[in-house]
Fold 3',5'-cyclic-nucleotide phosphodiesterase.
Amino acid sequence: MLLHLSDLHFGTERQECIQAIQTFCQEQRPEVVVVSGDLTQRAKFKEFLACRQFLDGLKIPYFVVPGNHDIPLYQLWNRVFSPFGLYQLFFGSLENTLVTEHFYLIGMNSIRRRYHTRGHISLEQIQHVDEILQKAPQNKLKIIVSHQPFYTSNENHHLKDCPSLGKFAIKEWGQHQLYALLHGHLHLVAVYDLNQEFELDLQQPVYEVHAGTAISKRLHKNMPNSFNVIHCDGSFEHYFFDEMRQVFVPKK
Ligand SMILES: [Fe+2]
């Protein structure tokens, strides 16, 4: 099982959600925890530290990518000259790969200092990920993790945040058994098949999985806190925070 968290926004975290995730991990023991960006609210040292301590405390391998909140917004000097300085201090490289029992994870940095919220991927990144996919083990579910979604159906004002080369990238990666992409950013829960949405005529679906915010008070239109689970057979499950019981429960 893979646990997909997103948009933790440490600095605005809810302790009751943190505890519920700790309990979930102790009981379910996912093989990996993925966080698809926005680890912090304002890219502050103490926020990165709190996030790192939270993830280390789960005692489960974790895999993170940066979000647009993870580079400084107001400290212009740092934004220009060292936008990822604190992120890298706490989490190392911006783009990693990780192999687990059932999954092959590829992290992709879609954050650029010149954009406030918009996602960007380059031709070089597309080609690099394509090469990784071609060499990846055949028996794993191949999954790309990046912050901004490549597609959104109904929130049209967010379309501008999707990377402009997203459709082109899926057309390439979809030919090399890419199974799914995990994103955050919109604080909304959704699953799409990009083969259908982009009308690509690939041999198999390419799933686009959006996660809500797992622990932040910054909820979209009072949507509950949530996370996703990807099972070893590739099926998806969405969990929502139950305020009465103070636990995450799967959506029926
Ligand atoms: Fe974001």
Q: What stands out?
A: The mean pLDDT is 95.
